[in-house]
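Support request, please re-run this one:
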Amino acid sequence: MARPLRIEFPGAWYHFTCRGNERSRIFKDDADRKEFLSILKDSLEKYATQLHGYVLMENHFHLILHTPSGNLSRFAQRFNTAYTVYYNRKHKRTGHLYQGRYKAILIEKDSYLLVLSRYIHLNPVKIKKIKRLSVSEQIECLRSDRWSSNLGYGLLRYRNDFMCYSDVLDYMGEDTKSGRKDYREFVEEGLLTDVESPFGGIKGHVVLGESRFVDWLYESVLKNAKPDKTEQSKSRELVKEIQQRLIIDTVCKVFKAEEAEVIRRRSIFRDARMVYIDLCCKYRLLHKSLKEIGKELGDLTVGGMSQTRKRLKAKLQKSNSLRSKYNQCNEIICNE
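Re-run finished. Output below.
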């Protein structure tokens, strides 16, 4: 069975989550939640892993982890196994507790840690029965949720000794009374607007970071990596350089267009050109900067490429035919 690509290196940051098998509950009572946090604390200590945020929902959980030793898989195996053994024994059940393997998104700290922290802390008030309440009522629910690190970020008396708070609060001016107040307001302001998921810009299904971070990741970690053959083909762009020639040939083949027409700025094959630009950005960003890609595409600006990709995204949602051709291009490129 295909598996997500695992990227580990000293100092890596992750959004780590598991969901109950068949979306079943993984906590039946507060005793389960307390034991979960106890096992989490022990695992953090054993593998020198740092926790910067957590939220416990009924059928899943979110963690923000930092691994100074680059040992996420060892931490995850011990932590998930220990809680599964506890839960199965207590509730007289057998088999898998979680749905598949854990999900770990590698994140660029400076660009995404703060917004990711807000995103996971808002999870408890994003369920349907809470979303129907007024904003003031939602804030009360948020402030009374005991099974989240959010309270500890705002008030010292709610802090856990296994949590690290300073890295997130540094973005609010430091771990001071003022910084904690600003962070609490930052999170609660997310209830006034529809905060977008930070995972919209994820690359290869496993990396959340700006182009400079992805460039560094490729050169420093992935360039000479040998991924497991069972890892997802959709993650191959993280370890395999895709040549521009392959992309243009694929687009021309799928759209039955001449290369000169696809490359031309005022092309009659507008859809094909949009797909070509999008795929060049998607598959070559790990090896070149957006500015370099734009130069190869006829001196396009970064802003121009961004607008083209937004237009394509909107059109893909409306056109089944275009979406089919786009998926076909991706499939050919990934399997080449």
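Confidence is low (pLDDT under 50) at residues 232-237. The two ends are 20 Å apart (CA to CA).
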